[in-house]
Amino acid sequence: MKQPEHFAGIVQGIFTKFVPTFIVAKSGIPGQWYPTLLSSELMNEPNTPPGWLHRQNQLIRTFTFVDFSEAFAFMTRVAILAEKANHHPEWSNVYNRVKIALSTHDHGGVVTDYDTDLALQINALLK
Q: 10 falls in which pLDDT band (50, 70, 90)?
């Protein structure tokens, strides 16, 4: 969908009741735009822990810290929780950011109570 520059931003219209809120973002092609889902409230399951998104059968959250040392220390604390629960996240770290994706592989790669419980424990580390 080709849109003028001023079109970038949140799009809401008459059909908001039926169509989720989108943010319009540039694609990899100059001058091309595509809608990207923005509203997590519209897609999250009711029991999704605060701060987490429920996407593609995973609970996903990105954490940002002051620096790499804080991010790595957080990952170490999460690793201890995950090991105790025998429930290991998929994650990545780039400098001060840690992205965690939780799903239960033993149940077909879907979100279960194991994921929700671990997400809540991870949230508690930030308090």
A: very low
CA angle 104, 109, 112 (to 5 degrees): 40
Give pLDDT tens digits for 19-45: 333 344 444 555 544 444 434 444 566
Q: Please, which residues bridge with residue 53 across strands?
A: 60
Length of the chain: 127
- How far apart CA 52 and CA 29 sit, in angstroms, is 30
CA-to-CA separations, 26 to 2, 33, 37, 55, in angstroms, rounded: 10, 4, 13, 21
Q: Which residues of 48-57 are buried (b: 16+ CB within 10 A; e: fewer)?
A: bbeebbbeee
Asked if 3 and 32 touch (Cβ cutoff 8 Å), the reply is no
Dihedrals phi, psi of 8, to nearest 5 degrees = -60, 135
Can you tell me whether residue 68 is helix, strand or coil? helix
Whole-number Å distance between alpha carbons of 88 and 68: 21
Hey, which residues does 60 pair with through a beta bridge?
Answer: 53, 101
